[in-house]
């Protein structure tokens, strides 16, 4: 696989991921507006948010679709890093593999610490 082909594949991966995330978030947003667009908001009543995975069960189905789209958006650059790691492995470039593994470790740590 040539460098130009790798760059084209990464570009396609990023465009596809962002477009898919936009479609999922937009469809969830439209569903949310259809279901809850005319609801009155109680500003005097505070509802705290749960941190981590426990808060997902309290979401309505349209909000879960929006969240899935946002997770897809976050997963897009992670997929790019994983693809880059595979490409560097195919090229047997150990220095860039080590750097990419470091980037992947930082991404994994930041995502895990945000959700757990």
Your description of this structure?
- With 116 residues, the protein is mainly alpha-helical.
- The chain has one domain (3-115).
- Helix content is 75%, strand content 0%.
- The protein has helices at residues 3-36, 61-91, 94-115.
- It is elongated.
- The N and C termini lie far apart (38 Å).
- The model has no long low-confidence stretch (mean pLDDT 89).
In short:
With 116 residues, the protein is mainly alpha-helical. Helix content is 75%, strand content 0%.
Which terms summarize this structure?
116 residues; mainly alpha; 3 helices; 0% strand
Write the layout of secondary structure elements.
Blueprint: H1 3-36, H2 61-91, H3 94-115
Helix pairs in contact: 1-2, 2-3
Shape: elongated
Largest sheet data: none
Secondary-structure element string: HHH
Q: What is the helix tally? A: 3
User: How many domains, in number, for the residues?
Assistant: 1
Please identify the structural class as seen in this structure: mainly alpha
Helix content: over 70%
Count the beta strands.
0
Proportion of residues in extended strands: under 5%
Radius of gyration from the CA trace?
Answer: 19 Å
Average per-residue pLDDT, rounded, comes to 89
Measure the end-to-end span: 38 Å
pLDDT < 50 stretches: none
